[in-house]
Amino acid sequence: MSGTWMTTRAWLLMLPLLVIMVAVIGWPLVDTVRLSFTDAQLVGTAGNYVGFDNYTKMLTSSNFTRTLSTTTWFAVVSVAAEMVLGVLAALLLNQEFRGRAVLRGLMILPWALPTVVNATLWRLIYNPEYGALNAALTQLHLIDNYRSWLGEPGTALAALIVADCWKNFPLVALIALAALQAVPRDITAAALVDGAGPFNRFRFVILPYLAGPLMVALVLRTIEAFKVFDIIWVMTRGGPANSTRSLSILVYQEAFSFQRAGSGASLALIVTLLVTVLAVAYATLVRKTAGSAT
Amino acid sequence: MERKTPVFTAFVYVCALLLAAVILAPLAWLFVMSISPAADLAAKPLRWWPQAADFSRYAQLLSTAENSAGAAFTSSLRNSLEVAGMATLAAIVLAVPAGWAVSRTPSVGWSLSMVIATYMLPPVALSVPLYMGLSWLGLLNNVFGLALIYLTILAPFTTWLMKSGFDSIPREIEAAAMIDGAGLLQTWRIITLPLAAPVVATSALFAVLLAWDEFFYALLFTSDQRAKTLTVAIADLAGGRVSDYGLIATAGVLAALPPVLIGLVMQRALISGLTSGGVKG
What we know:
The complex is a heterodimer of chains A (294) and B (281). Chain A is an all-alpha fold and 294 residues long. Chain A has helices at 3-36, 53-60, 62-93, 100-106, 108-112, 115-125, 132-139, 153-180, 185-193, 198-226, 230-235, 247-257, 261-293. Chain A has two domains: 1-36, no CATH class; 52-293, MetI-like fold (Orthogonal Bundle). The longest helix of chain A is centred in the N-terminal third of the chain and has 34 residues, at 3-36. Chain B has two domains: 1-54; 66-280, MetI-like (MetI-like fold, Orthogonal Bundle). Chain B is built from 13 helices and no strands. Chain B is globular, with a radius of gyration of 24 Å. The interface between A and B is large, with 96 and 97 residues.
């Protein structure tokens, strides 16, 4: 069979997928770019061309800078915590102990729990009047009075990060565990014979095997954390006093609550650009890590 | 092997118990809330274990009596099932030929890479035109419209999984069938698809989980019982003025049950699917 026919056939087989992808991703993305240069409303007026007005307005607004720093803080802290907890859990699950298989099985539960259910569950736990956290801390005499964990700007973001970590560190643990199981036994044994301590064995023998998979997990989790919407929307809607507002929530408010489709679109594209830059930077880093590890 | 000191062994067991408690405690509490009488949940000090298990909320939510909390819940349950089912079916129908094409003809692989790269796009970057488009088509607040939108998430992912699945089926087997005179469709039917069945099943389960979990588009594009999905219904309950927290917990348990059961039963396949991306890079 000739190469050209093979290629043509491949394109024909891909055609349905590509048509749908252009319809539901390609076209909307192009249209978002168009809208971002107009003052269009969500319903009604088509809007006039306004040049870069939306971009300058959005980039210079204090709402944007504050939301960017909130989102960055959320992403950095929750992803870092998930990585550390995930690797620690994986190292534990790689030890031999009774019940290990069951514990490994349990790790899938937080991952399988729908994000909205997770958010609802933690919202109930943090409830200011009847929540389990307040009850537990009071009964242990760690706090005197019930507190509104999600209602105070000082604790709301931290409370969200805990809820996000609980759901996502098990996935990192499962990825790290799969990588740990790929470390050849004789290599760790040889390092042991050579007198390497636990820290050096982790740093020089095990970490090179973990680096590649962990970098991929880091990239995916960071992108997700930067796009975060669901968990924050259900737990705090970005409040109190906008202290937990993420970029995605800001776009939602601009485009759908205030119905300003034009400036919402420009904001959405700024977020997209940030995520893309992040992803490309990471991808370069991943390639380097993968190169040095092997 | 390293000799394990008793202290180290004890340390491992303590950590294992701690990890199990961290994972299980919030989930157990969700279930306990769902079966505790309302008075127990409002008691101070809080009653951690119900005096008598009360399963009435499950019956309440699963009843279809009109204008009850159950009617809203069961209709959202049905919508979630319909949307997840339709979107998964469509995603698989698109993914099988496309995944096979990329696997067998790597020169077209860049187009799949582009499709997968859309994963980086935040849904907010597509939401405004999608809203206007659905509105123009009259597909707002409609399960078909929502299922179509879910393909933005499901189709790239399933195609990628199918491509890796086809990669592991040797093309020599297909070539042998073709030499014996079988056409492409016949080769697929007799050779390729039966061999790929486990991958199709795994991809479909992943797709169902993704659709079941989706919230953002459902929040934007549905407005009442005709199309609202479970995730939106639960967010409504959690954000509304429901005074019985046990009822919210019950809705959470019911919504979590299908994906958690899929997760437990399909553990091995799901973990290998999840980690293959991570390990292969």
